[in-house]
Amino acid sequence: MKKAVILARSFARSAKDPLRLLETAGIQVEIKKDPDPENEKIVSELIGDAEGVLVGMDRVGEVVFTNCPNLKVVSKHGVGVDNIDLQSAQKHSVVVANAPGTNSISVAEMAFTLILILARKIPHFFEQVKNKEWGATSFGLELEGKTIGIVGFGRIGKNVAQYAQAFAMKVLYYDPFITDEISPYKKVELEILFKDADFISLHAPLTDETREMVNDKLLSLMKKEAFLINTARGELINEEALYLSLKENRIAGAALDVFTHEPPFDNPLLSLPNVIATPHISSHTREANLKMGNIAAENLIRVFNGEEPLYRVV
Ligand SMILES: NC(=O)C1=CN([C@@H]2O[C@H](COP(=O)(O)OP(=O)(O)OC[C@H]3O[C@@H](n4cnc5c(N)ncnc54)[C@H](OP(=O)(O)O)[C@@H]3O)[C@@H](O)[C@H]2O)C=CC1
Ligand SMILES: O=C(O)C(=O)CO
Hints:
Number of strands: 12
Radius of gyration: 21 Å
Bound molecules: NADPH dihydro-nicotinamide-adenine-dinucleotide phosphate, 3-hydroxypyruvic acid
CATH class of the largest domain: Alpha Beta
Shape: globular
Largest sheet: 7 strands, parallel
Strand content: 5-15%
């Protein structure tokens, strides 16, 4: 009987159907809690002699591939595969698969939720009510007529653009891999996007090109009233530069679902009054969790059966 270890945290919480898929396929499933997803040694120990692993943000690199020679497939419970060393996987002949599109609605809805929360200063007013202070102490903003800049115009970015259009916002996007204009949106250079947008939402994958793409130079182009929203990956931003921009009120605020190191409990960004944060939960809805789980399970089963996964990365 082939064995698969499940490390993806949200899978373990509500994965009735995907779990049934795996068990019906005759796979021995072990659900384990990963206490330190960035530590490859621990990840290796948890995988042990299993042939398959279903991961969330658990780091899978050379250490894991070397320590787990039985491993045949790494199935990502989600989209971004930046936590998996793809070159190393190829070197060790391990298949990597992911679940594109399964969480794009949830993440786009989350990004837009954060935009609305920032625009209407919800955390500030909630604190105020809890402190028994009633009435408006400051003004929010309407979205109508404002400009949103979307970095990375893939599945999630395009959903965010649709929502923005429904709010009568102007939509700018930057994506070097899209050559044609996608009407009614406007493709622009990254610098123009940072200069002109009132809200900037990041939706690019983490790659060598995008790592710390949001640096001091780009941040310095932003309007003083503009907000940055990141539901993609923390590493897209140089966090030190962002900290200074926010601390010196050179930009209005930021909403961050993701950080360079997670959990970010010691991250100074969390001490700033103009930052709101969530614990990497943009895809955590019942609907997306089920879709991610089913595709991730199906990918694993297919590779175990000697077939192509639905979405092979390498
Ligand atoms: N917080 C969370 O819980 C979640 C975070 N995510 C993150 O969001 C990212 C985007 O997801 P999704 O929209 O589904 O992915 P997609 O692949 O559909 O979209 C990403 C887009 O960004 C483009 N891109 C690549 N490089 C750059 C660059 N240098 N600058 C700008 N754009 C670039 C891609 O082009 P091309 O396709 O040609 O490479 C693609 O069009 C994921 O990679 C993941 O890291 C995703 C889900 C949940
Ligand atoms: O799908 C992804 O890349 C995620 O980050 C899911 O949490």
